[in-house]
Every structure is written in structure tokens, then in C-alpha cells.
Amino acid sequence: MKRSTVLKKSYTNGLTTNHNIRFSLKAPETIITPPTTPPSYFTNNKIQLNVECLVRARIPTNTGEFFLHVYKNNKDGKEHLAVVYGDDFRSKSLDSSRPGENEMDRIVRGAYTGLLKPGQTRSNESNISIVSNQLPPPLVRIHSECFTGETLKSARCDCGEQLEEAMRLIQSEGRGVVIYLRQEGRGIGLADKLRAYNLQDLGHDTVTANILLNHPPDLRTYDIASLILADLGLTSIRLLTNNPDKIEQIENDGVKVIERIPMVPQAWKDKLDSNRIGHEMDQYLKVKVERMRHLLNIPESLLP
Ligand SMILES: [Zn+2]
Prior knowledge:
Helices cover 32% and strands 16% of the residues. The protein is α/β, with parallel strands linked by helices. The chain has a domain at 51-112 and 134-183 and 220-278: Rossmann fold (3-Layer(aba) Sandwich), CATH 3.40.50. Strands 1-2-3-5-4-6-7 form a seven-stranded mixed beta sheet, with helices on both faces. The longest helix is centred in the middle third of the chain and has 15 residues, at 159-173. The chain is globular and about 65 Å long. The structure holds zinc ion (ZN). Residues 146, 149, 157, 159 line the site of zinc ion.
């Protein structure tokens, strides 16, 4: 798997002394985020990354009936997910037979075709005709976990809205996949994400806050997403994203992105009606455009 060049810059603005704080609060504002690169532990080791789908099950939602796939991998011990809509995406690792298993084992881990019904004893009672070769590349969203935005509906970011919109678009098109990666807070974890929020309340933007905590502005990687896509038989996709770094990383892994579909927040589409509470989200997205290369048109009302 090819990876891009490792970023050599080290982020040394610590919070250990008052001197460091005074020193560090000035400089990082001018730093423009370079393309994200994977952490060195991954590029330096020789372990071949692999993923395996452990189980899948039907999840009915407000935006349609999806199949949730839980993956394991040999890199980080986290349960990364694929939320799949449409019959033509099958996980190779899930469907492959396991030593010693019987039909009920296969049913319980989700390696069946069609929909289950009470009393069913065979895993392939439905004959699904897979015609994905004749269909256009599907919509895909590669989404990173955001507890505050998705579960608490925090207005600091647009993650919850992006996830819902991606599922809605996929459902309305009839097929597609959301890869859900467990890399909270652009990879720094929930505790440091909350520290970064406190720094933002002191007046720093999201990029500077990460740097003040000795993190790069964006620690996320997408190598696991690329392998999950490959496991689902997806080599060519239409990606829902504003993030050019994501496209570069997965294309380096061999995934072909034939189209980028922007994720424009509803409030920006609606030209910012005055009753909304999204002021903090607006500032957050503006920083992503200005300092993280995100591809969005900032509404005129937010420009100086
Ligand atoms: Zn978020």
C-alpha cells in the first residue's frame, strides 16, 4: 500500500509552563495545514494491514433500511463500521466460509442473502442477482466518529448533519455505503477534543487548538476505509466529501474517486437564516476551508 510522504514537522507548543502558553498562543495562527500523513508507527512497520467483517445485521432507520457491518483489523483494535444500503454490496470476508461452521453460525453472523424470516435454517434461501458491474460507481461517505456532533447534536461542528445527509442521499439513490471510522476528534480522541474546545472558547481556532495540544491539525487516516471498500468490492466510487486530503489518501491506496460530491451544510445552502444557532459551526467550517484546504464556498455573510 503506497503512502504519501511523512510530515516531518513536529508540533512542540506545549502547555506545561506559562512561558510555553504565552509563546505558543502567538505563532500557530499562521500555519496552513499540510496534507495529513499517517503516523510513523504505521509507515515504519512492515505489518500488512488487513480487515475482516465479523458480523452484519439489518438496521431500519428514519432514512431507510441499512445493513451495519462490524469490522476488525490488525492495526488499532477498534470496531470500524460499514453502513451499507443496497443488495449488491457483499463483504468478501464475511461471506467466506469459516472452519467448522454450520448454517446457523452463518446466519447469526449475517452471512445470509436476502432478509431473514422466523424459523429460517438456511443462509442462502434468497437468490440475489448481483448486477453491480452494470451500475455506476456508488455514493460513498467516509465518516469519522464525532460523539458530540452525532449523539449530542453539538452545534460546534456539522458532523451529525453530514452523517444524516449522507445516509439520506444514499437511500434516495438506492445504493451506497457509509464507512464509519472510530477516530474521534480528527483522531485525537474525545478527551483532547474537549481540551481543544476549551482552547477554542479562549479564542483559538480548531487548527491552533490542536497544535497547542501537541497534535497535528488532523491525525485521521483512511487506510482502513480503503480496505473495507475493497472488501465490499468497491474499487471505483463517488465520494461525499469536502476534504481533498481524504481523496488523496484513498487514491494512494488504489481506490478510484470518479466524482466528488460536496457536503454543503443546510444553513449555508439556505443562505444563513437569522434564527439559527450555528454561529460556532460556521466559524469551524470557515477555518476548515481557510486552513485545512476544505472545498466549500464560504457564504458572503461570513466573509470579512
Ligand atoms: Zn464533529
